[in-house]
């Protein structure tokens, strides 16, 4: 008899894979992603959380707890600024889940909601860095050199993984 693996196991494994892929992609493709003056940051960790919010059962997956935990780990491992993504990740997941429930559940709605989520994520990160004095770039520089390229990269990544992740969650309904 074949045992069915719970979707929560796939979620946790996928979350850690996405987390480490964020750093690996950034490291191996740093010459392309971080070519002055532009910065493209892959947020596969957030992509995995948001897709889980779209297709999964947030209560069974403990989505907000996981988003805070992975935000804390993300802060410790990647940024060195403890506390920024601990609050931003759950907020972005909540906003995306809320808006996605209002819209018809399809790829275009997911694309729009993810666009909104990445915009909020990157903008709040920028505001936190301005607040603590870690950046001195202007808002115009941020919009053109960081937000726009980051949005473009992450929307391409969403386009690549949206349907396979949807199929994964569809085959493992809670």
From TrEMBL:
Membrane topology: Multi-pass membrane protein
Gene Ontology CC terms, in alphabetical order: plasma membrane
Record has Transmembrane helix as a keyword: yes
One of the GO BP terms on file: regulation of cell shape
InterPro entries: Cell_shape_determining_MreD
Compartment(s) where it occurs, according to its Swiss-Prot or TrEMBL record: Cell membrane
Transmembrane annotation, as ranges: 7-34, 40-56, 84-103, 110-131, 151-169
Keyword NAD included in the entry's annotation: no
Key words of the record: Cell membrane, Cell shape, Membrane, Transmembrane, Transmembrane helix
Name of the protein in its database record: Uncharacterized protein
Chief location bin: membrane
The species this protein was found in: Lentilactobacillus buchneri DSM 20057
Protein family membership: Belongs to the MreD family.
Source organism, top-level taxon: Bacteria
């Amino acid at each position: 008899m074949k045992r069915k693996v719970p979707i929560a196991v796939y979620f946790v494994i996928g979350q850690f894979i996405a987390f480490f892929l964020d750093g690996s992609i950034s490291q191996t493709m740093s010459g392309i992603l971080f070519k002055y003056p532009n910065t493209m940051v892959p947020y596969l960790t957030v992509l995995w959380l948001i897709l889980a919010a779209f297709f999964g059962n947030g209560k069974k997956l403990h989505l907000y707890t996981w988003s805070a935990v992975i935000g804390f780990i993300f802060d410790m491992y990647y940024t060195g600024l403890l506390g920024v993504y601990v609050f931003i990740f759950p907020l972005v997941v909540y906003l995306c889940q809320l808006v996605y429930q209002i819209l018809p559940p399809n790829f275009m709605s997911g694309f729009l909601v993810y666009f909104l989520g990445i915009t909020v994520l990157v903008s709040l990160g920028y505001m936190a860095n301005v607040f603590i004095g870690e950046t001195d770039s202007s808002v115009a520089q941020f919009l053109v050199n960081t937000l726009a390229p980051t949005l473009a990269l992450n929307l391409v990544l969403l386009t690549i993984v949206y349907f396979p992740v949807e199929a994964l969650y569809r085959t493992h309904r809670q």
